[in-house]
């Protein structure tokens, strides 16, 4: 059995405590049952103990009279506490209203920024159109100047044949005009030949670059409307939002296709209607005419179904644009992989024929 014995018991009030004015090292003798309390790096004892130390001459009376040694007692007023609580609640309410106003101001500022950006875009388009109009005006002036020169030559010939100049002199003038015309034609033909030769070199270089792209992104038809691009097997039906193939495989294949189409547009010096941003399996398309800040992802995971389907449609439109620019016929709403393969095969056949 375990027995418990009460050794001692003590009870005191906080008002009975007072700070010990000296350190314990200076006090060599204290009563046996002295209670010491340490609070805020100070040692407190009972007031009667300090009286004992004063009578014993261990503590000076001057130190004992200092009221700062006593434990400070704080008084609290309930009404002041309630007023403070009401002030805090009022401040919280004011803060919430300020946050709401700040959010409204932020929305207005963002709307103003969007309006300003749209205005700047319209101004840029206006400047481009003005530049185009000025170029057309210059071209029109050149054509008018050429037309006036031709009219002058015709009028001179009419005067020549209507006047009384002898026939041999007229024939001589006509022969000289014919020789000058032949010289001009031969110069035009040589310049045209140079232009065509340069165009052929550019065309051949483009075909060689497409051949190099085919080595990086090989597209093969394996049957049943299924293709492979860099050994990733994918069917035409997998590009829809309800495809059964793994989403990561589809997004990776679409990333390859996006980069392939992007490089083809660069090689062919073609500005695509829908700008492609190749970013591997997280590529996307931007419609900078109707939706300047919108992004249409070429991956299905965690995105809107309509935006994904619209991205597939935009990618097909870009492929058709490239096909039309090469003078080929594209199938309306045809499979993307099929049209890309036909385009690359046409470029390779042109290279072999040339």
TrEMBL record:
Signal peptide, first to last residue: none
Keywords: Coiled coil
GO biological process, one term: SNARE complex assembly
GO molecular function, one term: SNARE binding
A GO cellular-component term linked to this record: lytic vacuole
InterPro entries from the UniProt entry: Atg6/Beclin_C_sf (IPR038274)
Name by which UniProt lists this protein: Uncharacterized protein
């Amino acid at each position: 059995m375990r027995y418990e014995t009460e050794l001692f018991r003590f009870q005191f009030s906080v008002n009975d405590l007072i700070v010990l004015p000296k350190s314990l090292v200076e006090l060599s003798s204290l009563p046996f049952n002295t209670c010491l309390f340490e609070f805020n790096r100070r040692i407190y004892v009972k007031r009667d103990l300090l009286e004992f130390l004063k009578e014993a001459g261990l503590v000076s009376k001057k130190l004992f009279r200092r009221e700062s040694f006593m434990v400070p007692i704080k008084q609290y007023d309930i009404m002041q506490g309630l007023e403070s609580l009401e002030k805090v609640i009022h401040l919280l309410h004011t803060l919430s209203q300020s946050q709401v106003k700040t959010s409204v101001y932020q929305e207005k500022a963002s709307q103003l920024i969007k309006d300003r950006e749209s205005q700047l875009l319209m101004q840029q388009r206006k400047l481009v159109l003005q530049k185009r109009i000025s170029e057309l005006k210059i071209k029109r002036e050149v054509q008018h100047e050429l037309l006036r020169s031709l009219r002058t030559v015709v009028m001179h010939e009419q005067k020549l044949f209507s006047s009384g100049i002898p026939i041999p002199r007229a024939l001589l003038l006509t022969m000289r005009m014919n020789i000058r015309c032949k010289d001009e034609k031969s110069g035009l033909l040589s310049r045209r030949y140079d232009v065509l030769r340069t165009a052929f070199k550019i065309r051949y270089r483009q075909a060689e670059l497409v051949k190099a792209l085919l080595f990086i992104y090989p597209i093969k038809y394996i049957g049943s409307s299924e293709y492979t691009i860099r050994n990733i097997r994918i069917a035409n039906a997998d590009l829809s939002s309800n495809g059964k193939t793994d989403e990561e495989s589809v997004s990776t294949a679409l990333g390859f296709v996006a980069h392939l189409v992007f490089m083809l547009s660069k090689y062919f010096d073609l500005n695509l209607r829908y700008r492609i941003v190749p970013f591997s399996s997280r590529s996307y398309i931007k419609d900078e005419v109707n939706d300047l800040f919108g992004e249409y992802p070429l991956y299905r995971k965690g995105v809107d179904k309509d935006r994904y389907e619209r991205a597939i449609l935009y990618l097909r439109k870009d492929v058709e644009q490239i096909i039309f620019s090469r003078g080929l016929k594209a199938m309306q709403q045809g499979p993307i992989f099929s049209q890309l393969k036909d385009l690359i095969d046409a470029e390779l056949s042109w290279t072999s024929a040339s």
